[in-house]
Amino acid sequence: MLSLLPTAVQAQDKPLYTVVDGYKVDADTMTGFRTWRAAACDRCHGANQEGMVGPSLISSLKAMSKDEFVKTVRDGRLDKGMQSFGTSKQVMDNIDSLYAYLKGRSDGAITRSKVEPIR
């Protein structure tokens, strides 16, 4: 069954992410997943973004704005053990894609943490 779910929309009316069958995603969202993996965010937030030492991003992104997300990733929360990624070129160059991937997980549109490109 093919189901296309562009659920979150940015201000320009361009979908924040596009998901098919719960795990096939557009190229930008795929870049976000690859950035997640490269930055090893799963060490603290868990392989399924459900939290470990760090909080669940599935829950956090339900209430956190994109601006708050960017600030947290860029500056870290050193008092809580969250490192800063502000000097990571890969993370900062792909922050919008990373947000799209994690927001899709939080919204429930992306139903598993490991995604594949839409073909």
Describe the structure.
The protein contains 6 helices and 4 strands. It is of the alpha+beta class. The chain has a 4-stranded mixed sheet with strand order 1-2-3-4. Helix 1 (27-38) crosses helix 6 and helix 3 (57-63) crosses helix 6 (95-107). The protein is globular and about 40 Å long. 28% of the residues are buried. Mean pLDDT is 91; it is low at 1-5.
Produce a short descriptive summary.
The chain is an alpha+beta fold and 119 residues long.
Topology:
Blueprint: E1 4-5, E2 19-20, E3 24-25, H1 27-38, H2 42-45, H3 57-63, H4 66-75, H5 89-93, H6 95-107, E4 116-117
Parallel strand pairs: 3-4
Antiparallel strand pairs: 1-2, 2-3
Helix pairs in contact: 1-6, 3-6
